[in-house]
């Protein structure tokens, strides 16, 4: 089927990067044991242990982020416990109740947070608001790094959150659907941003990073991983031809594609944000710290952009979201910039534009 | 990583067939909408509707058979209902309680059946054994075509089962993890074996048929599919880059690879079964009607086979199971035949051999 | 154990009223079939059908409100559906995630509502905010009559809510933990306030109305009750000696104790509210329309009341909640009034008192 | 409603014994805190701790056995674990899938056991049959004392079972729906039969022992009880007017009614069994060790008994089941004996009688 011009509506619109593809191709030969008893799965797991400098980490592979995050959270709490998250966290807003389903009823306690980031104070507020058996007991905190709108927790912020969690007897989970983008942006080691900062459990996203599908679940405390393999199997997340879920990870991790892909996507976001920073009628809604750019503009201007063939979502605050991936083409970004500039000049401002 | 000689321990040991691969490659270009809003997914769905001659069928795609079957069954019953299946059905023996998990507690009522096939009488026995609220109410029957041991329901048998189900107010689900092998063996149209014979819901397996991963769920009665997309999403079975789960189906279905692959695998099974039919000390445990061969032999003979480098499972009745796939090599089968013959002659019989 | 002076901290602090007691005593003789196959259960069910002028209503009995409401809601939605309720609804704030547990994950969508009442506009806002499969699909609305803070929906308001529900394809459930108080206050027939106004399902509370335990679940559309008996049994809500859960209902309903008890409790609330209406430093937080009185006062004044031996909760807005029951003693209310007046005079106002 | 002649169809047909009644009456006065924060609940809990000579036991109260056993088992395993029980265990045969529901999918692994008793060998067989992630991992064993058919585990047998469990890393739960009958029959201390013999968790039945409703859940290892109060609340098993669920326990335990009631019921069973032991055409199906008598007889003889006004169930092996309770009247038993003898003489034997 013929290809259309590249869009930046989602980093899920991108295909499979060459390194993941090559590893899949390499894995596609001969008879290979099923259900993870194969050499590729071992190699991918070891690559994660190396990358995180944590030889005793337990690594599992799920098909997607919905399952990875939900299974991870379910492993940390019972049905009568609760999970503290930001009101804009993906587990709250876009998983169709998956965390509640996999945990058989755990409630999400949401903190209103302008930038989608939790703070020790927000966590404490939710964790200590109730202490009676008529309300689910808080047991785990989940933070998204980077957030849905592309903001980052600094290492200090993560450490502060994890210290707050420890004080309250809470576990700390990180939704890293775009973990690589965070690493690339902060320029830090994966270990620093996770277990060394007090994160118990990480879901490391592969799909948005350049794979066809797949998310890795990393338990930094092996004791927490007890029987997690059974949990994955029962929940429909154990691949029979597992090598095709794990070989791509080998391709991503061993040669550094994971961080290169992310750095490229981040650079693309900065390229767009920088180029339109001064465009009248278009305002950046959030600091650009990862691979997302959100631009506030009048409905007329957004329509004008659409008329020029651009696709984008506006579900967050009504602004236009642009997400970049490993394959984002600079020329195409420049085309977008040109169209934004043109729309900026051509479409008059209105009083209601910033509303 | 270097490849080892081909084994027939499982049809999950095989890789991705050329047609599925080519379609994946073709899908790997450009920006493509996520979550199934893409042309590949539409095309795969249409290919299923065409193949089953059922333009109003609703088609969904899950990552694997555990999820596909469990979600399908859960859509047909509530937690206080029960599912009638054979004692050797995969949903009972090898899904780690997934049907119970996805349905939040539906009980499987198992019929002891020597060949793994249900009959109207067996179904009636289980469905009418209890009619009080202290025991889960039967609501759905699941049959596996072909069975775990490679037997087939004839069309008449399926029609009889479905008629029995209708009499009892039960829905009929077909676990078609190896559906293609059944079609190839019976030489019938998919429609004849399913909706025309009274099947409400089919899980059509892609993994064992030559894909990397993936199972299609076909609702022949669209009314039963209400909100099923939500169910899939919540249960972690909605792929973001959906095209990579659906394009391979296009490759499999449009050019007929699905039936060629299955026919080849079935022929391989007959090749082995035919060649060792007269080998003293090796006895076929089941009629070879699909892609499986089960050989009963003494532990000494099985060990001798293993010593010659062959891998196989013995979890069904202690016999050696050999499963063939789209890529099974005739030469390698012949090598297995030679080794079985050699072991047959070299290892003496024992009284306990057939025990 | 010796009795202490009566408190008005909760209507759950009251005992069993004479009519419920007498019926229990009457039921305590001879051999009686278990699990609801007894004459008392039939008689109680019929009494409900009579009371609601609905001969085809289906009636079930649960041990408590947590279960009754959760089972009722679960019967109206699947795990990937959502329930619209007020932010102060008991199912959201005080059931420890029971609705999510019994439904295996249905999400509660909460509307901020100052008085705890839903309106068609609030419902429409929540029901139409999202229509994609990434968020649970709204399927049922639950209203509490009276609300947690003692406000009532008028009949017109209920009709408007139900009309709004029908437009949106939503079912309407009424949490009637204090349903009798609503009837007594509005002076209307139970039928008018429920099925004639478009309510599909009612949980009618017995515990707060004078029973030891028990809640009735009334399906006004019998089709919705399909297999609900199995649901109750599986969920641990089928009493073996059912007569002891149902005979008290006979005692409550047949002679009118249910409405007398409620009228008394409502009158007690008005008695308190009226007597302290002019007390400086004590302000009614909500209109007194049922059996609850909430009084805002400074922490010093509340402490002073506690020092005089009064127990009350302050979990709603920091005010003192007083709840009245069938057994509330006018003399004791007058004693409370005297103490409030005394505290009103003795404890000085502070600037922060009303904060 | 008028009382009919006493029947022995079930020990659930009996009413409330005087001691439970008196305690309920005593509890029915004054304002009493809700949700278990009352003196009666503390006193009942302490009475259990005294009775079991285990000051640190954690005690919870559920409405019925379905919930008590299911919640207890759910607290010991996750959804991907399994529970080993006898094929005739009540949790398997008569709870409508409640254990699967409360645990969100734990599978029951049933051992065929002629007398309903598990042995270390049976447990080991089920516990070690599978050790792969494709089948739920055994985590807990449940034994019923006495069994559904009235047999008892000796103390040595319990100790052997618990030793076997410990070897296999399994927890041991005892379903004591008729625990008192076991104590009365074995003449042993509750502690000997439970925690001193290695039982981790006991559900102690009150309903069949003479109460209106109620089951106690005793954790002998307090660590296992972590957050169990939340579990009960979420699952609809926390009574608001808790005193009415717990005061009866005070009445039962403090004065010894619990054991007297059970001893009486056991004696009644022996009275019947002894009196009909020599009746031609009636054969005891099981040793009479508790309060149950099962009599095998021809359909004609059973019909003849029914014609004489007797009600009984035949769901176990087609024999007539008679269950005795605290209120069983010796005269009425003697009337049953006379009728059995009459039927024994009057109805001729048939060849098929014992089939």
Task: Describe the protein.
The structure is a homotetramer of 355-residue chains. With 355 residues, chain A is α/β, with parallel strands linked by helices. Chain A folds into 2 domains: 18-256, Aspartate Aminotransferase, domain 2 (3-Layer(aba) Sandwich); 258-347, Aspartate Aminotransferase, domain 1, CATH 3.90.1150. In chain A, 41% of the residues lie in helices and 14% in strands. In chain A, a hairpin with a 7-residue loop joins strand 8 (283-284) and strand 9 (292-296). In chain A, helix 1 packs across helix 11 (243-254), helix 2 (39-51) runs parallel beside helix 11 and helix 12 (257-276) runs parallel beside helix 14 (330-346). Residues 351-355 of chain A have low confidence and may be disordered. Chains A and B meet through helix 1, helix 2, helix 3, helix 5 and helix 10 of A and helix 1, helix 2, helix 3, helix 5 and helix 10 of B.
Quickly give the CATH architecture of the largest domain in chain A.
3-Layer(aba) Sandwich
Unreliable stretches of chain A (pLDDT < 50, length at least 5) are 351-355
The ordered string of helix (H) and strand (E) elements of chain A is HHEHEHHEHEHEHHEEHHHEEHEH
Task: Give the overall pLDDT of chain A as a whole number.
Answer: 96
Which oligomeric state applies? homotetramer
Structural class of chain A: alpha/beta
Number of helices of chain A: 14
